[in-house]
C-alpha cells in the first residue's frame, strides 16, 4: 500500500502568510520604482525647459524678462494670469513628494534586507554617481528650498537690491561669488544624480533588456547629465565673469 510523505510545510500557515507578504512586498517595491522613474522623467523634462529659460539671460534684460512674463501668461484667457504656472508648481511638488517618499521607503527596505554589515565596504563596479545618489538627492533637495526662496517664493536678493525685476535679481545673485559656487556645486550634484537616475529609470521601465539597450541608456544618462550641468552652469559663470550684466 503506497504511502505519502507529509509535506514539511503542511500545517504551517505562517509559511503561506510569509510567501504572500513577500509577494506583496515585491509588487510594492516594483510600484515604488515605477513611481520614482515616472516622477524622475517628469523632472528631467521640467529641468530642460527651465534650463532653456535660464539661457535667455544671454539675450539680455528685456528678452529674459519677457520670457519670465510669458510663463505667467500661459493659459490666458481661459485661465487667470499666472494660474498655469501655479498648476505646474503644484504638479512638481506632488511629483517631488512621490519621488522622495519612494526613495526613502526603498532605501529602508534595502537596509532591512541587508542582514550582514560588512566591515570593509567595496565599491565593486559602482560608479561615483550611483554611490552619491542618496546624499546627492538630499543636497539637491536642500538647494531646491534655497533656490525657491531666492528666485520664486521669497525672492531674496543677497546684495540688498530690488527683487521685482527677474533679470536684475539673477545678475545680483550670481555676481556674489559664494552663491555662484553653491549653485555650481548643486549643479554638479544634479548631474551625478541624473546620470545614474536616467539609467535606473530606463532599467525600471524595461528598456535595458540587451547589451545595446544598456549601452544606449548609459550614454543617454551621461549626455543628459552633461547638457543639464553645463547648461545651468553657463549663466552664473558668465555673470560672475561680467559677460552678463545689468
Describe the 3D structure:
The chain has 8 helices and no strands. The model has no long low-confidence stretch (mean pLDDT 84). The chain has a single domain (32-111, 130-240), classed as Up-down Bundle (3 helical TM bundles of succinate and fumarate reductases). The longest helix is centred in the N-terminal third of the chain and has 42 residues, at 13-54. α1 (13-54) packs across α3 (83-113), α1 crosses α8 (211-240) and α5 crosses α7. Helix content is 72%, strand content 0%. It is an all-alpha fold.
Chart the SSEs and their pairings.
Layout: H1 13-54, H2 61-73, H3 83-113, H4 128-131, H5 133-151, H6 166-174, H7 177-204, H8 211-240
What is the overall pLDDT average?
84
CATH topology: 3 helical TM bundles of succinate and fumarate reductases
> Tally of extended strands?
0
Architecture (CATH level 2) name = Up-down Bundle
- Domains (count): 1
How far apart are the termini? 99 Å
Uncertain stretches = none
> Largest sheet, if any?
none
**Could you say which structural class the secondary elements and strand pairing correspond to?**
mainly alpha
Rg calculated over all Cα atoms:
24 Å
Amino acid at each position: 500500500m503506497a504511502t505519502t510523505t507529509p509535506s514539511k510545510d503542511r500545517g504551517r500557515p505562517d509559511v503561506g502568510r510569509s510567501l504572500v507578504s513577500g509577494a506583496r512586498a515585491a509588487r510594492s517595491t516594483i510600484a515604488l520604482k515605477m513611481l520614482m522613474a515616472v516622477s524622475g522623467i517628469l523632472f528631467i523634462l521640467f529641468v530642460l525647459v527651465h534650463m532653456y529659460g535660464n539661457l535667455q539671460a544671454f539675450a539680455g534684460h528685456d528678452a529674459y524678462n519677457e520670457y519670465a512674463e510669458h510663463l505667467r501668461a500661459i493659459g490666458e484667457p481661459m485661465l487667470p494670469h499666472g494660474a498655469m504656472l501655479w498648476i505646474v508648481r503644484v504638479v512638481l511638488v506632488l511629483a517631488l513628494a512621490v519621488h522622495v517618499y519612494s526613495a526613502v521607503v526603498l532605501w529602508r527596505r534595502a537596509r532591512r534586507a541587508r542582514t550582514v554589515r560588512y566591515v570593509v565596504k567595496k565599491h565593486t563596479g559602482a560608479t561615483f554617481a550611483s554611490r552619491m545618489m542618496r546624499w546627492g538627492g538630499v543636497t539637491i533637495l536642500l538647494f531646491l528650498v534655497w533656490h525657491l526662496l531666492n528666485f520664486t517664493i521669497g525672492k531674496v536678493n543677497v546684495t540688498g537690491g530690488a527683487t521685482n525685476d527677474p533679470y536684475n535679481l539673477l545678475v545680483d545673485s550670481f555676481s556674489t561669488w559664494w552663491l555662484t559656487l553653491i549653485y555650481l556645486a548643486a549643479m554638479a550634484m544634479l548631474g551625478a544624480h541624473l546620470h545614474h537616475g536616467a539609467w535606473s529609470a530606463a532599467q525600471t521601465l524595461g528598456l535595458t533588456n540587451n547589451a545595446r539597450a544598456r549601452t544606449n541608456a548609459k550614454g543617454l544618462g551621461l549626455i543628459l547629465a552633461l547638457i543639464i550641468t553645463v547648461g545651468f552652469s553657463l549663466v552664473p559663470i558668465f555673470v560672475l565673469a561680467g559677460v552678463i550684466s545689468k
